[in-house]
Amino acid sequence: MRKVLERSWKRFFQHKTFFRNMVTLALFATIVPVLAVGFGSYLFSASAMQKEVNQSNVRILNNVSSSIDSTLDRIQNNAIQMMLGSFFSSNLTELKNTNYTGFYSSMSREMSALQNGNKEVSDVAMYVPDEGYLISSFYGGRRIESDQQRESLRKEIDSEDQIKWVTGPYPNLPGYNVNGVTFISKVPLLAKEPAGLLFIHIDEALFKDIMERFVSYNGEQMYILNAQGDLITSTGGELVPEGLLDLVAQKRSEPRFTFEVNGTDYMITPITSAYNKWQYINLVPVKELSAKSNGIALITLVIVAICLVLGSLIAFWGTRRVYRPIQNLVSQVKAGQVYDTETDEVGFMRRRWMELSSEASELQQQLRDQLPLIREIFALQLLQGRFLHYSEEQLDVMLRRYDVPAGLENCIFVLAYDLQPERPARFQESDHDLIVFAVKNIVDDLLRSHNRKGIIINLLNDQVAVWLFYEQESAESGSSGVKAFIERLRGLVSDYLHLPVTIGMSGQSDLISDVPELYEEAVMAVRSRILVGDNQVIAHTGGSESELHYRYPLEIETHFENSLQIGDKQEAERMLDEFARSMQEAVHKPELIQISYYRLLTAAIRTAYLLGADSARLLDEAESDPYTQIRKISTIRELNEWFKAELVTPITTYVLGKQHQEHELLIHKVVRFIEDNYHFDLSLDQCAQICGLSPHYLSKQFKKTMDVSFIEFLTKLRIDKAIDLLRTTNLSVSDVAEKVGYQPKNFIRVFKKHTGVTPGQFRGTDIAN
Prior knowledge:
This protein is α+β, with helices and mostly antiparallel strands. The protein folds into four domains: 61-286, 2-Layer Sandwich (Beta-Lactamase); 368-542, Alpha-Beta Plaits, CATH 3.30.70.270; 554-651; 661-768, Homeodomain-like (Arc Repressor Mutant, subunit A), CATH 1.10.10. The protein is built from 28 helices and 16 strands. The strands form three sheets. The chain has a six-stranded antiparallel beta sheet with strand order 3-2-1-6-5-4, with helices on both faces. Strand 9 and strand 10 (264-272) form a beta hairpin. Helix 9 packs parallel to helix 10 (345-383), helix 12 packs across helix 13 and helix 19 (590-611) packs antiparallel against helix 21. It is elongated. The two termini are 114 Å apart. The relative contact order is 0.05.
């Protein structure tokens, strides 16, 4: 395992490969965006968290401010309503003088009612200046003894403010020297000479309780300051952090900012109440916000890690798939070569491309060198008719590929030499290849010197063919010019070889499709040197079409096979006679006759095999090879007699015997069907359908096999069954007729026709006997 990892490590990191570059780029393209998205998500979530907390703090401060403002407003309104009541609206001085006890009793009752109606109020007190007496709902009545306090209260009465709120301790009254808010009003309102002062005190515990209900974070602090910046109350101590008010004043336009207190960073959120211009400041530790952001960061980190792992795997897998065609290409091009660690696949492919380009250039040069040979092979195949099945478009493509012009006059001539041991020659009998090579060179030189175009072809039988193509000329001048060229060529070759040389010359045609025919003309012409003599140019004389173009009688062979398949001996022998007559067209070519009968023999043996006959039994045991027997026969008449005796008679006999067996089986099947169903309305068509034969053919075969017709057999069977029923049962004639498949009237008529008596007479006679 360790060695595998080391090899993988070296192959990936120490060798410079295109795959490594692709993986690195893919991982970089995968990791960087994921990290950017991860960090961006974290920063965005942290910022969003702070923004959300700030908005939440603003809502909290607004709620705190709203709760406090509504409480103060309600207490103030209730105090004003009390002072506008009947008691405080009356002449308090006269009431006190006339009913001293009732005055203080009513005053205490009104203040107690006010305090009871406002649970937030810690104390309600009334100061009567002429007596220096303070009536409190919480402390009871007592006198103000301090001249300083009386002087301060007098100044309060003489001030222009009818009502006001005082924040912080109010030292002029006993018990009011604690933090809180005090409402002060002259009594009665708007009087020129007030009878006293009304004090309503709210303890700071009320404000702290409201603020603490909205505290959400550990270490969160909330401060309430009046319009002058004095601390009313807070949840974070009795002193406002130094520099906080200045910072709030400076950054009043910003929604949130941070402030450090005792080494701890806080996010500051301030608002100002529109009711009394009090400032509400909320301080949330940044680390508490970071705690939630850390959770988001952890989730983000996990997601980023998962995305990185998945992205890396997908990148590696995708890169591997993309790289696989390159790897396959490199492995195919590599061919056992190795590339150094300083070169990746692209560099290796570039180097191999240059090498392959060089090799391709060499191969192209070799192809150009071999092109004449390839062109010669193509021409040979064309002469032999290998491309006759090609369409004109396909043939044009082949001609252009091998630089063979179309639309020109074409002429073929075949050059043959004859070795004569009695005459001195330049070459020996074993020098056939050398002779052909020399002849081709002489022809090529002569074509060049006469500026003629053509293809020289080695026919692989010690003969050379030349395919000439030239511009169309008049028939006379064109033929004579070509023949003169060939005469000169023949003379040059004969003089060089010291051998008799014969050239067979074809006719002319401007159609490429006629080239195989021209070649056949040239071959036939050079063969005729045996009759007209060698060492000359023999031009095609345009002999009978049958001599040059013998056609195998395929239709006769097909008819002969069909006759054998149905066992028609007479027709098969007639087809043999027709085949023999068609051979007369090739009587001058015994090899064609022999080949044709070989083919006919093959067709007969194939037919016997398909029919299931044993071909070994069809032929004479002594003649295991029928093709050898054909070669021994010298006349067509003897060939036909041999075919009739050895093939036609055995095959047709086998077919007829096989057909007879099949017919017997079918007829026996029909007989069994008739015997089982004679009591139904049977017909010949019904039975023919069961056998899969035509009614006419079934009737003919039934008659041939049973020696009676179908109707006669059915009638006799029914009459025999009826006789048996008349003898062995007491059934009525009608019932007997129904059981054998007749109507009563027809039954009586048919029964009398076959027996000479009616059914009733037959039964009576039978009983009498």
